[in-house]
Amino acid sequence: MEGEVSKAQTTARGQWTSNLGFVLAATGSAIGLGNLWKFPFITWDNRGGAFVLVYLICIIAVGLPIMMAEILIGRKTQKSAVGAMKEAFGPRWGLVGAIGVLAGFVILSYYAVIAGWSLYYFGKALGWSASGFPSGLRLGDEFTSFAARGGLQVILSGLFMAATMSVVWSGIKGGIERTARILLPILFGILVLLFLSALSMEGSSEALAFIFRPNFSSLGPDGILEALGHAFFTLSLGMGAMITYGSYVAKKQSIVKASGMIVLLDTLIALFATVIMFSVIFSVPGMEEQVGGSTVGMLFISLPELFYTTVPFGRVLAPAFYILVAFAALTSTISLLEVVAAYVIDEHGVERKKATLMTGGAIFLVTVMCAMSFGGWGAASNFELFEGKTGVFGTLDHLASNWLLPVGGFLITLATGWFMTREDSESELAAGGTPSWYKYGAWRFFIRYVAPVSVGAILVAVGFFGVDFS
Ligand code: PFF
Fold first, then answer.
1. Spatial distance between the Cα atoms of 138 and 124, rounded to a whole number of angstroms
2. Would the pTM of this model clear 0.70, i.e. be above it?
3. Residue 234 CB–ligand 1 contact under 6 Å
4. How far is the CA of 235 from the centre of ligand 1 (A)?
5. What confidence tens digit (pLDDT) does each residue in 77-129 have?
6. Cβ atoms within 10 A of the Cβ of 182, count?
């Protein structure tokens, strides 16, 4: 054990090869199921325009400053979540990092299940494209019986975990950065093709109006908080993912420029995805009423058939769409596992490969329960900790989105805004150069006042008014 500790400690810490490498890896973390799966649905649920506008404000006023804060903490200390919080703010703050590690563990365990669904639908779409979409197929029933096949669910999420582990196993440059450099351009390319096809559809102008024309009468206070909560999830904030990725950033790179880029790309992708899905939905008479039900409904029940009946070049684009979802999910699951693995590596001196196996294996045990939550196994499906949230899957989603991310985010903003000296944060953010839109004073105002008050409001809403963000 002694030997192992010193070996791990003397191994040089990984670093991104360039600013672009970092931006791609962090953007990969940010872009995920949150953009392709959750954002279109909550935009739909909140009736569009006004919600999108509020969301954009939350991204700029709260998301961007916290993104900068997290990367700053990581780069300054060159440590992952727990070690970084301890070193920057004192031993007790290590707990905030620990909440982040727990959040990474919890989110990955259920995220891998949905990621597995995208693999399955990719396979299905390949089959449909090759031999035709069967008429009369009831995709809703099909989905329900698919989700209840416990064994298949475990295999699919297991495949996804294996892919995630193989990347984290290979380290920062050779694993995480390399994967992002390959997958992100493919992801952007597919999205552009889908976007062009969507714009050529009849429903696209109605979709654009729905998304970009604000109608404030349809947005309540819950919608505003939901936008804020989602800003956290989509930017991978509040759980030390960006602290951990920031710890591999070299001093000569600019935190501010990178943060601006990551936030911009994440937002663009979410908007693109929403335009694509709504253009399809608005192009089919009567579809609007049918979609309503759930996020799952939109992605895995309504869309597959529409690809084959309505979307131009749908036979090519359907499999492309599901592989896009899988790639986006993979670059996110990598960062979730990295937060947990890097903690074990940095704080317990375990070597990377061993740490990957240990943490990935432990998380997979919980993934199995999440995978069995849709009828695969009675105990996992009926498990109830929070009222109205049945199943291990729903419980963990609720725990992470309502509690772990907002609490972590709140404490990270407080720490950076109030417990780090002005000199420290100013010089760290200035290192590597800053873009023209950046003003240190503005960042400081947002991180000290705007961000903690806004995130505090989420906690008050969850704690006292029972609002649900999962
Ligand atoms: N940002 C990811 C998404 O939008 O799907 C989810 C996520 C990944 C959250 C990594 C947190 C994280 F650390």
1. 14
2. yes
3. yes
4. 6
5. 999 999 999 999 999 999 999 999 999 999 999 999 999 999 999 999 999 99
6. 13
